[in-house]
């Protein structure tokens, strides 16, 4: 799975994109988020997971709302460029898991995408500065 940040180039930008054509990557991503939701992990650094490669140095840290009072995705201005934090309460992380789940079962080559934040994320509209999208399109289209 590839992780990158797109500042511009589409009306949907800025956005963080997670792209893979491998259903197993989506399964691993969902299981990692589940560990955050149930409290086994307090933070989840996506770019540090063995199945995720940051192709442009983007860093995305996922947090439970219990560890921060900001909810949504935001750029961390005090950190390295390309460093982002995404914070949600546990019940919303469960919703993210449900949005990812269909990608585990798709075995065709058509490619799909799903917004994980914003108005198109059905129930996860919030206070995000930056959108997050997952895609199984070859080449990363959404």
Task: Summarize the structure in words.
With 142 residues, this protein is α/β, with parallel strands linked by helices. The protein has one domain: Gyrase A, domain 2. 22% of the residues lie in helices and 27% in strands. The protein is built from 3 helices and 9 strands; from the N terminus they run ββαβββββααββ. The chain has helices at residues 23-38, 90-100, 102-105; strands spanning 2-6, 15-19, 43-45, 53-54, 59-64, 72-75, 83-88, 113-115, 131-135. The strands form 2 sheets. The protein has a 5-stranded mixed sheet with strand order 4-1-2-9-8, with no helix packed on it. It has a 4-stranded mixed sheet with strand order 3-5-7-6. A hairpin with a 7-residue loop joins β6 (72-75) and β7 (83-88). The chain is globular and about 40 Å long. The protein starts with a strand and ends in a 7-residue tail after the last strand.
Any key phrases for this structure?
single chain, 4-stranded mixed sheet, globular, alpha/beta, Gyrase A, domain 2, 5-stranded mixed sheet, 3 helices
Structural domain tally: 1
CATH hierarchy: architecture = 2-Layer Sandwich
Coarse structural class? alpha/beta
- Silhouette: globular
Give the total of beta strands: 9
Q: Averaging pLDDT over every residue, what do you get?
A: 88
Total of DSSP H or I helical runs spanning 4+ residues: 3
Round the Cα radius of gyration to an integer and report it.
14 Å
SSE blueprint:
Blueprint: E1 2-6, E2 15-19, H1 23-38, E3 43-45, E4 53-54, E5 59-64, E6 72-75, E7 83-88, H2 90-100, H3 102-105, E8 113-115, E9 131-135
Parallel strand pairs: 1-4, 2-9, 5-7
Antiparallel strand pairs: 1-2, 3-5, 6-7, 8-9
Helix pairs in contact: 1-2
